[in-house]
Amino acid sequence: MAGTIKLEIVTPERVVVSEQAQIVMAPGTLGEFGVLIGHTPFLTSLQIGAVRYVDPQGGEHFTFVGGGFAEVLPDRVTILAESAERRRDIDVERARASLERAQKRLAEMRSREAVDFARAQAALQRALTRLKIAEKNRPQ
Amino acid sequence: MATLKDVKNKIKAVRKTRQITKAMNMVAASKLRGAQERMESFRPYARKFAEVLGHLAARAGEEAHPLLTPREGIRAAHLVLCTSDRGLCGGFNTNLIEKAESFLKEKKAAGIPCSFTAFGRKGRNWCRKIGAEIAGEYLGIMGTMVKFGEAQEAARLLVQGYLEERYDEVWIVYAEFLTVARQVPVLRPLLPVPPIEQVAPEPGGYEGWLPEHLCEPSAAALLGEMLPRNVSVQLYRALLETSASEHAARMLAMDNATKACNDMIHNLTLAYNKARQAAITAELMDIVGGAEALKG
User: Does a structural domain hold residue A102?
Assistant: First the structure.
């Protein structure tokens, strides 16, 4: 297929996405970036966020990624994520629960260790992002 | 001498044992399948990770990263010991612990104290028995659905301990899963990260392009982010391999036990029949003897 790139989203536990896409948008640590075919080789770390891609039929898809790395080559994008879920696989209940837990933890902790603080914040961020993606009112 | 009834009871007992070993064999077989699948699904990630890390290491060159540079003068060592939680798996745990023991001996001879992180109850118990310092113990996850998050958390603590100079090197002992019939205990360095090898890219890759990657933020910064993750990846792999090996070892041990039960039942049945026959013969002789005497 001309004009499409291969998108692979891989976590240690499974391959989440392996599809052709017209365009891929991913949340790099230095800002979101978009990839079309023929992109220059590029390597970046990723933030917690949503990977958006458009399949050859024009359908738009959202996938949650919980941080990791992306490698871009002219004809493919490989995302190594610590965790990743397609929009339809997001467990909204669990995300809500972990959101509450993270909020509570952050509220209780004021002067504790920086590491714990950062971890709670990351958990909060993950939960929020999951919910945001899940609640986007568009067909996947 | 064992009476007929004793032999019969013994046969019954061995049958019951056989039932258990057979069931355990089948459970282990199905768990092994699950564990192997998890190893399979980790492979794409591990492969890609190694590939990217290889490029980055080549790019960042000799720019020393604290996790890459071996320290001069090792003052303390740390060993991650992966074993199973449960027994009944042949020499599996013994072999792993032996490996750890020889490592410990070597360190002791060099006058280097060694602390432990134990995955699995058997290894933890051994550490306790020899009175070693246990920095962390993880029970109840070996042989189950090991999650990457668990490896990540443990790896984070290891890296932290290393950076805080609580120890100057970290090694890991785990069971490498070669085939269902062969699992080998291995000792590998975790920290400092051993020299990173270049991994050949997947067929159909853009070999020529790779060294010219643009990097965001920078190659060195990316490498700095990837190295701690590399520890999680290695650790996770070790946990998966050990879990699969445990089930394979148990399957084999239970298969042997079932066979031994079969042999025993066979032999006991023979003995039982012989004894029964002898008793009948003796009785007949008695009757015949008595009849003869009456005839007089």
Answer: yes
pLDDT confidence of residue B72? 82
Summarised one tens digit per residue, pLDDT across range A71-120 is 888 888 999 998 898 888 888 888 888 888 888 888 877 666 666 777 88
Q: What are the DSSP calls for A43-85, one per residue?
A: EEEEEEEEEEEE-TTS-EEEEEEEEEEEEEETTEEEEEESSEE
* Sites in chain B below the pLDDT cut of 50: 208-209
Give the CATH number of the domain where residue A71 resides. 2.60.15.10
Q: What are the tens digits of pLDDT across the range B277-290? A: 998 999 999 999 99
Question: In a 10 Å sphere around its CB, with 0-12 CB exposed, 13-18 middle and 19+ buried, how is residue A125 labelled?
Answer: middle
CA distance B32 to chain A (A): 16
Verify that A39 and A61 share a domain, yes or no. yes
Q: Are B35 and B261 in contact (CB under 8 A)?
A: no
Nearest to A43 among B42, B49, B213 (CB): B213
Q: Which superfamily is assigned to B35-251 in CATH?
A: ATP synthase, F1 complex, gamma subunit (3.40.1380.10)
Are the CB atoms for B102 and B111 separated by under 8 Å?
Answer: no
Architecture of domain B4-25+253-295: Orthogonal Bundle (1.10)
Structure-block tokens of residue B60: 């960042």
Measured in angstroms, the CA of A78 and the nearest CA of chain B are apart by 8
Do the Cβ atoms of B214 and A43 come within 8 Å?
yes
Please give the mean pLDDT across all residues of chain B.
87
What's the CATH number where A99 sits?
1.20.5.440
Interface test with B, best of A6, A11, A37, A45 (most B CBs within 10 A): A45
Interface confidence: ipTM more than 0.85: no
Q: Do B46 and A12 touch (CB under 8 A)?
A: yes
What does pTM read for this prediction?
A: 0.85
